[in-house]
Design a protein that fits this description.
Helices cover 71% and strands 0% of the residues. The chain is mainly α. It has a domain of 75 residues. Helix 1 runs antiparallel to helix 5. It is elongated, with a radius of gyration of 22 Å.
Length: 141
């Protein structure tokens, strides 16, 4: 403690500088850990990742009987097919491309979390919710 002040994580939540610092810290940790994990496992692929690569390749070959199925998510396969089509990696680097696409998805998920957390906090401030769950649920209907 310096002159009676606490460290940034103990200061009031209204401090914009501390919130920016905390936000930057979360982004830095997420970016660093996510990239290190993606790079360290760049040549390892799980059976699910291998199947997603197979489905993405089927989309690129226009082999609809293999591409369209009820088990594998089409959105991720489409994104993976688009990435493979744009970058044209050799088979050795396909797993790396898969990990980098997952890394981008991680960053998008963090940004989405930020967006919804800000919306929640803004709504909480606007409607004056004080922490009473029953009051909040009754207001929602």
């Amino acid at each position: 403690m310096d002159n009676g002040r606490f460290f940034f994580w103990f200061e009031p939540a209204g401090s914009q500088r501390n919130l920016r610092l905390l936000r930057s810290l979360f982004w830095l940790i997420t970016f660093g850990a996510g990239f290190l994990q993606a790079w360290a496992a760049r040549f390892w692929i799980s059976p699910d990742g291998n199947n997603y690569l197979d489905v993405a390749s089927a989309y690129l070959r226009r082999d609809w009987t293999q591409a369209v199925n009820a088990y594998w998510s089409p959105l991720f396969s489409w994104l993976l097919a688009l990435s493979v089509w744009i970058f044209r990696p050799s088979p050795r680097w396909e797993s790396t491309l898969l990990h980098l696409l997952n890394f981008v998805a991680l960053l998008l998920a963090l940004r989405s979390f930020e967006f919804f957390l800000q919306a929640f906090l803004r709504a909480r401030k606007t409607f004056g919710w004080n922490g009473d769950t029953e009051e909040l649920l009754s207001d929602l209907g």
